[in-house]
Every structure is written in C-alpha cells, then in structure tokens.
Design brief:
The protein is mostly helical and 135 residues long. Helix content is 98%, strand content 0%.
C-alpha cells in the first residue's frame, strides 16, 4: 500500500468518523434539548406546586397570627375596661366623699351666715329703736 492510498484510506476513515460523530452529536443535542424541555416543564410544575403549598401555609400562618393578635387585643381591651371601671368606681367614691364633706362645710357656713344675719337683724332693731328714741 502506498502512502497516497494510506492517506486516502485514513482520510476516508476520519471523514466517516466525523460524519458518524456529527450525527451522534446532533442526536445527543436533540436528546439533551428534549430532556431540558422536560426538566424545565417538570421544574415549572414543581415550582407551581411549591408556590401553591407555600401560599396555603402563609395563609394559615396569617390566619393564626390574626387570631392571636385579635385574642391579645381582646384580652388587653378587657383589662383596660376593667381598669377603667375600677378607676370609675374609685373616682365615684372619692367624689361622693368630697360632696359629703362639701355639704357639711356648706352647712357650717350656712349656719354661720344665719347666726350673723340674726345678729345683724338684732343690731338693726337696736339701732332703729335708738334712732326712734332720739327723734
């Protein structure tokens, strides 16, 4: 076999290998492309499922937090209402005592004014009597 024949044979073999490899690469690319499409579709479906699950879980957590906040708010409201009621009763008792003391002090003042009025009336009578005697 001559070098030219060997060169032609090697070239033909390389050409055949290149053609075969090109076909196999094309097939592998097509297969990989199809697999990537399938994986993307599967991942998209899984992500959608995870999103839906997370959305449900978040809704449950929000509902739980809302109930807890409402319960705590109701508890605080009840405590504040109880304190306001107790303070109202204390204030009412205080003002009842103050009003009673005011009545007592007003009575003492009224009695004093009444006595002074009687004395002034007595003085007025005496002065009128004296003036009548002089005239």
């Amino acid at each position: 076999m001559t070098i030219e024949e060997l060169d032609a044979k090697i070239s033909a073999e390389f050409s055949a290998v290149r053609t075969k490899m090109s076909g196999e690469f094309t097939a592998v690319r097509a297969e990989m492309s199809a697999e990537f499409v399938a994986v993307r579709a599967e991942m998209s479906g899984e992500f959608a499922a995870v999103r839906a699950e997370m959305s449900g879980e978040f809704a449950a957590v929000r509902a739980h937090v809302d109930r807890a906040i409402k319960a705590e708010g109701d508890s605080i409201r009840a405590q504040v209402d109880a304190r306001i009621t107790a303070e109202g009763e204390t204030t009412r008792r205080h003002f009842d005592i103050v009003a009673e003391q005011f009545k007592d002090q007003t009575k003492v003042l009224a009695d004093g004014i009444g006595r002074n009025t009687e004395r002034l009336d007595d003085h007025e009578k005496r002065i009128s009597t004296i003036e009548t005697e002089r005239s």
